[in-house]
Design a protein that fits this description.
Layout (H helix, E strand, L loop, with lengths): L1 H19 L1 E10 L10 E4 L5 E3 L5 E8 L1 E8 L6 E8 L4 E3 L2 E3 L8 E2 L9 E5 L2 E5 L2 H6 L6 E5 L4 E4 L2 E4 L7 E5 L9 E3 L19 E2 L5 E5 L5 H11 L11 H6 L14 E9 L7 E9 L10 E8 L10 H12 L7 E7 L3 E9 L3 H9 L9 H14 L6 E8 L10 H12 L4 E6 L7 H10 L2 E5 L3 H10 L1 H5 L1 E12 L4 E6 L20 E4 L3 E10 L28 H5 L2 E10 L6 E9 L10 H17 L9 H9 L9 H19 L2
Parallel strand pairs: 1-7, 1-8, 21-22, 21-24, 24-25, 25-26
Antiparallel strand pairs: 1-4, 2-3, 2-5, 5-6, 9-14, 10-11, 12-15, 12-16, 13-14, 17-28, 18-27, 19-20, 20-30, 22-23, 27-29, 27-31, 28-30, 31-32
Helix pairs in contact: 5-6, 5-10, 7-8, 8-9, 13-14, 14-15
Length: 677
C-alpha cells in the first residue's frame, strides 16, 4: 500500500499542477477581403489534439490548454491556411488571436451547368441544408431576394455573369440574404425581385363615441417613438410608409414639449389645455401633457444593464449591426463608473459576450461591442432568457435594472411566435427588470412584434435608422430611455355630458383599457422615464355644435326610445363649467400600489392662434400622421396646413427636431405630388 501511495504522489502532483497551469485561447476568424465572420473554420494547436470550429459569428474558444508556447493554425476549404507562431498561453488566463483569411482559387474553373442534371452543388453550411441539382434549382433557392454565396468547400468564382465552381462540380456553400446587393469578394446570383417581409400590426382608428353610454375613456400612456422614426426612414427614401406603420401617439410623443415641471410629491406634472380644433373649427381639442421630473445627479441610481444584441445573419447590413455597434458605443461614453454592463448576443444560440463589467472599464466594454459580427439563424427566445437570467443574478435593489434588446425582430429559432414571446416577457417583468426594445434595419423589420414586447415588458420601443437617432436615444434622451420614475401609468377621462356630445381619443388604439382596469393595480400599463413628456389629444364635439361624426341623427340626451333606462343629467353636470375630469393613476418604480391624481378642464376653448406652441405643434404632428394613415376624420386638411401650423409653433427646439419635422412634411408633399402626376 505504501508503495502504491508513493507511486501515486507524482501523478497527483502533476494533475494538480496541470489544473493550475491551464489557460485558454480564443478569437475570431474573418474573411480578409470583406471583414465578414467565417463559420465552420477549423482551428488547431499544431502538435496537439486540441482545436475548435468557429461558430456562425466567426468566434472560437480552445479551453484546457497547458501553459506554454504554441503554433495555432486555421484551415477552411476555399481559403489559404493561416498559421501564427509563438502564441503564449499563461496559466488561468486567456490569449486572444484573430485570423484574417484570403480566398484561394484551386484548379480550373468549371461552369455549374455544363453537365446539366449531373452538375450539383450541395448547400450544407453548418445547420443550413438544401440541395440544388441544376442551375434553375440553384436560383430557386434565391426566392424573393438577391443571394450572396460564401464558399465553404471547393470554392465559388464568377466569370462575367456566369457562376462557376472552383475545383470541380460540387462544393458546400452558405446562402445569406442581402437586400442591398453583393458585397465585394462574394458571388451574387440574380434572384427574383426583392420581397419586403416587414410586419406591422393592423390598427383600427378610434371613432367618435357618444358620451351617453360612454362617459369614461381609459388608456395606458405610451412613450414609444419607433413609429415616427420608422416612417421617416420611408420618407427619406422617397416612399410613403405603410398605413399600418403609423401610430399617431408615437408621432406626437417623439417630440419634447415645454410643460410645467412637477411640484410636490408626484414624479410628474399634469398640464391641460383646451382650444378650438385646428382641423375642424366646429370641434374642440383637449390637450393632456405629462412632464416627468428630471433626474438630478444625487438621485441617480446605479444601473444594472444587459445589452441583448441580435448578431444573426439578417443583422449584417450597414443599417443593422454596424449601426447598432455605433449606437451602443455612444451609450458607453455616458455610463457611470458604478453601472454594471453585461452583453448577451444571440444567433444560432445565445452566449455571454461580456460578463457583468463596471462602467469605469469602458475600453473593455467597447472592445466587446466592436468584436460582434453577424452570422447564423436567430434564437431570440434563448437570448431573452439568458439576458433576464443575468440581469436577475446581478439585480441591484432600488437600482435601475434593465435589459436593452436590439434587433430587427426576425426570430426564427426556438420559440418565435409573438404570443409565446409575449407570455415569457410578461413573466419576466414581475422580477422588477425593465425592458428597452430598439429596432434596426429594413426589409424584414418586425415592428408589431417589437412594439408588443416593449409594451408587455415594462419598457419602451424606439427605432434607430441613423446615427443621429442613436444620439437622440442614447445621449439626448438617455435618462428618459433608461431611468423609470413611474410605472403602470393610466389615464381615465370622464366627460361631462352637459358639455360634450361625443369624443374620440387620437391614437393609442392598442393602449385602450376597460374602465375597470383603471383601478386594478394588477393591470399593466405604460412607464414614464426621467424627463419624459407624454402627450394625448381628444377631439370633442360640443353639445349643440357640429354633429358630423356619424351622430347627426342622434340626440345624446334623447332616451325616449329606451324601454328600461331613463337617463338624466345630475345638477352638478348642468351647473358645472367643467368639460372633463382627468384622473391619472401611477405606481412608484419599486411599488405595487398605485396613487391617484385628479384635475379638471374648464369650458371656454381658446382660439388656435392663442393656444400654446405645444398644443399647436402636437396638433400639427397629429394632422400629419392622420394624412399618412388616410384618416376618416382629417376633413379637408392638407400638408400645407400641417406645414403652416407647425412652422408657427417651433418653440425653443433645442435639438432642431421640430425643424426637421417641417422639412419632412415638405418632402412628403413632394412625394405625393409626384405620385399623382
Amino acid at each position: 500500500m505504501k508503495a502504491l501511495l508513493i507511486a501515486l504522489i507524482p501523478a497527483l502532483l502533476i494533475s494538480a499542477v496541470s489544473a493550475v497551469e491551464m489557460g485558454y485561447i480564443y478569437g475570431t476568424v474573418i474573411d480578409g477581403a470583406t471583414g465578414t465572420p467565417l463559420p465552420c473554420a477549423n482551428i488547431v494547436l499544431v502538435g496537439t489534439k486540441r482545436g475548435d470550429m468557429t461558430l456562425t459569428d466567426g468566434s472560437f474558444s480552445i479551453y484546457g490548454v497547458p501553459a506554454g508556447t504554441y503554433t495555432v493554425k486555421v484551415m477552411m476549404m476555399g481559403y489559404k491556411p493561416v498559421e501564427k507562431t509563438d502564441i503564449k498561453v499563461v496559466a488561468s488566463k486567456g490569449t486572444r488571436i484573430d485570423f484574417r483569411m484570403k480566398e484561394q482559387i484551386v484548379g480550373k474553373t468549371q461552369e455549374i451547368v455544363v453537365e446539366g442534371e449531373r452538375a450539383q452543388i450541395d448547400v450544407k453550411a453548418c445547420d443550413i441544408k438544401h440541395r440544388a441539382t441544376t442551375k434553375d434549382e440553384f436560383e430557386e433557392l434565391a426566392v424573393d431576394n438577391v443571394i450572396e454565396v460564401l464558399a465553404l468547400k471547393g470554392g465559388i468564382v464568377r466569370t462575367g455573369n456566369e457562376l462557376h465552381v472552383r475545383g470541380g462540380r460540387s462544393g458546400n456553400v452558405q446562402f445569406q440574404h442581402s437586400p442591398s446587393g453583393c458585397r465585394p469578394g462574394l458571388v451574387c446570383i440574380p434572384g427574383r425581385p426583392y420581397h419586403n417581409t416587414e410586419e406591422y400590426a393592423q390598427i383600427d382608428e378610434n371613432d367618435f363615441l357618444p358620451v351617453i353610454g360612454n362617459p369614461l375613456s381609459t388608456f395606458s400612456i405610451d412613450v414609444d417613438v419607433a413609429s415616427y422614426a420608422n416612417a421617416r426612414r420611408f420618407i427619406m427614401a422617397d416612399r410613403l410608409p405603410p398605413k399600418a406603420a403609423i401610430r399617431v401617439e408615437e408621432f406626437i410623443n417623439y417630440f419634447d414639449y415645454d410643460y410645467d415641471k412637477p411640484e410636490g410629491d408626484a414624479p410628474f406634472s399634469i398640464n391641460l389645455e383646451y382650444a378650438v380644433c385646428p382641423w375642424n373649427p366646429k370641434h374642440t381639442l383637449v390637450h393632456i401633457g405629462l412632464q416627468g421630473e428630471e433626474l438630478v445627479e444625487e438621485d441617480r441610481r446605479p444601473s444594472n444593464l444587459v445589452f441583448l444584441i441580435d448578431v444573426s445573419g439578417s443583422m449584417e447590413p450597414e443599417n443593422k449591426l454596424p449601426l447598432l455597434r455605433k449606437a451602443f458605443l455612444l451609450l458607453v461614453d455616458h455610463l457611470a463608473d458604478d453601472d454594471q454592463i453585461a452583453i448577451v448576443t444571440y444567433a444560432g444560440h445565445a452566449r455571454v459576450a461580456l460578463n457583468p463589467t463596471f462602467g469605469r472599464k469602458k475600453n473593455k466594454i467597447r472592445y466587446a461591442i466592436r468584436r460582434m459580427h453577424a452570422g447564423g439563424s436567430t434564437a431570440g427566445h434563448a437570448g431573452i432568457q439568458l439576458a433576464y437570467e443575468i440581469a436577475d443574478a446581478n439585480f441591484i435593489a432600488r437600482g435601475n435594472n434593465r435589459v436593452i434588446l436590439a434587433t430587427d425582430g426576425d426570430f426564427n429559432v426556438g420559440v418565435s411566435s409573438t404570443p409565446e414571446l409575449i407570455d415569457m416577457i410578461e413573466e419576466k417583468r414581475e422580477s422588477g427588470i425593465f425592458l428597452t426594445v430598439l429596432g434596426f434595419g429594413i426589409g424584414n423589420y418586425k415592428d408589431g412584434r417589437l412594439e408588443q414586447l416593449a409594451d408587455r415588458g415594462n419598457g419602451n420601443h424606439a427605432y434607430i435608422d441613423n446615427l443621429l437617432e442613436a444620439k437622440k436615444v442614447f445621449v439626448d434622451d438617455l435618462t428618459s430611455t433608461l431611468y423609470t420614475i413611474a410605472k403602470d401609468v393610466k389615464i381615465q377621462v370622464e366627460f361631462n355630458p352637459a358639455k360634450v356630445a361625443s369624443y374620440r381619443l387620437i391614437g393609442y388604439e392598442n393602449r385602450l383599457l376597460k374602465k375597470e382596469d383603471f383601478a386594478d393595480d394588477k393591470k399593466d400599463a405604460g412607464e414614464i422615464g426621467a424627463g419624459h413628456t407624454v402627450t394625448a389629444l381628444y377631439e370633442i364635439v360640443p353639445v349643440g355644435g357640429d354633429m358630423d361624426a356619424g351622430l347627426e341623427n342622434v340626440d345624446p340626451f334623447d332616451t325616449d326610445n329606451l324601454k328600461y333606462i331613463e337617463t338624466k343629467l345630475s345638477p352638478e353636470a348642468t351647473e358645472s363649467n367643467e368639460v372633463v375630469t382627468v384622473h391619472v393613476r401611477y405606481k412608484e418604480p419599486d411599488s405595487d400600489k398605485s396613487k391617484l391624481i385628479t384635475t379638471v378642464v374648464k369650458d371656454g376653448p381658446v382660439a388656435v392662434k392663442e393656444s400654446s406652441d405645444d398644443l399647436r405643434f402636437s396638433a400639427a404632428v397629429a394632422m400629419y400622421a392622420m394624412i399618412l394613415r388616410g384618416s376618416a376624420h382629417m376633413g379637408g386638411i392638407g400638408l400645407d396646413d400641417v406645414h403652416d401650423l407647425a412652422r408657427g409653433a417651433l418653440g425653443a427646439d433645442e435639438h432642431m427636431y421640430r425643424a426637421e419635422f417641417i422639412r419632412q412634411v415638405e418632402r412628403t408633399k413632394l412625394i405625393i405630388d409626384l405620385a399623382s402626376r
